[in-house]
Write a structure and sequence with these properties.
Order of helices and strands: HEEEHEEHEEEEHHHH
Number of domains: 2
Strand order of the largest sheet: 1-2-3-5-4
Number of strands: 9
CATH architecture of the largest domain: Alpha-Beta Complex
Number of helices: 7
Oligomer: single chain
Largest sheet: 5 strands, antiparallel
CATH topology of the largest domain: Aminoglycoside 3'-phosphotransferase, Chain: A, domain 2
CATH class of the largest domain: Alpha Beta
Radius of gyration: 19 Å
Length: about 270
């Protein structure tokens, strides 16, 4: 490619990036602190990236494997991906009471197991991920599997999951530990409507049993501490990249929680 062709390609990429940053017409959905989400009818638009083709291929793979309640990829338009809208309630913070029931915790764990098992065999050649792969790469991790990315029906039952754009290969426990921090929850500042930390070990075991994991409570704490530090680093990076200083404040909270959980290790 000559310099003229390269310049034209760079100009096109810059134009698409500007278009992607402009919020299109539609209903802006709550949440999405790292990616503005706009609903148009029964579809949603989100800013795309180099990882989007891989994530779309992965979502189609999950659908073929029989996983329901997840977005269907519909294409990329002017730097934005279009996905089907998952027609259910996706809670925002502060989280509602129903996400903290034992039943909801177990349902989420069983859904996570289905997602992990369904990812086995996904082709990795040529894959591009937004989040770094982790070892051992047992499955494709969601990497943000938590109540604010789960879909609930009117009775509070878990019926699906959204926001797969941070998915990447990793160990099952990476997702399990993150889910535990948000859904058990494991935190030094328990929400007033959530079970207290005195009940956390029982709920971690409930989560692990529902998933079918042979990991223990201390395994979850160990990985949760590492996972929170990883999340803090990523949040600080995104705060600069996206011009959102509030993400740096979130990072401080993740590191505080990591320090607290480290004191609970056996």
């Amino acid at each position: 490619m000559g310099r003229h062709g390269a310049d034209a390609g760079e100009a096109r990429q810059a134009r698409e990036a500007r278009q992607a940053r402009q919020v299109p017409a539609g209903t802006v959905l709550a949440g999405g602190n790292m990616n503005a989400v706009v609903r148009q009818g029964d579809t949603v638009l989100r800013v795309a990236g180099p990882w989007t083709p891989t994530v779309h291929r992965y979502l189609r793979y999950l659908e073929r494997a029989g996983v329901g309640g997840i977005p269907r990829p519909l294409g990329v338009e002017a730097g934005r991906e279009r996905l089907s809208f998952v027609d259910a309630d996706v809670p925002v913070y502060p989280l509602p009471d129903h996400v903290f029931t034992d039943e909801a915790l177990a349902q989420g764990a069983r859904l996570l197991r289905r997602l992990h098992d369904a990812s086995i065999g996904f082709g990795l050649d040529g894959a591009v991920w937004q989040a770094p792969a982790k070892v051992p790469s047992e499955v494709i991790c969601h990497n943000d599997f938590s109540p604010h990315n789960l879909a609930y029906d009117d009775s509070g039952q878990v019926v699906g999951a959204i926001d797969f754009d941070f998915a990447s290969p990793g160990p099952r426990l990476w997702d399990l530990a993150h889910y535990a921090t948000r859904a058990v929850p494991l935190t030094d500042r328990t929400p007033p409507n959530a079970p207290p930390m005195a009940d956390a070990e029982r709920r971690v075991r409930l989560l692990l049993d529902a998933y079918g994991s042979d990991a223990g409570h201390d395994d979850v704490l160990r990985v949760a501490v590492i996972r929170l530090h990883d999340l803090a680093e990523m949040s600080r990076h995104k705060a600069v990249e996206l011009g959102k200083p509030e993400l740096a404040a979130d990072a401080d909270g993740y590191e505080r929680e990591a320090a607290y959980l480290a004191t609970l290790r056996a």
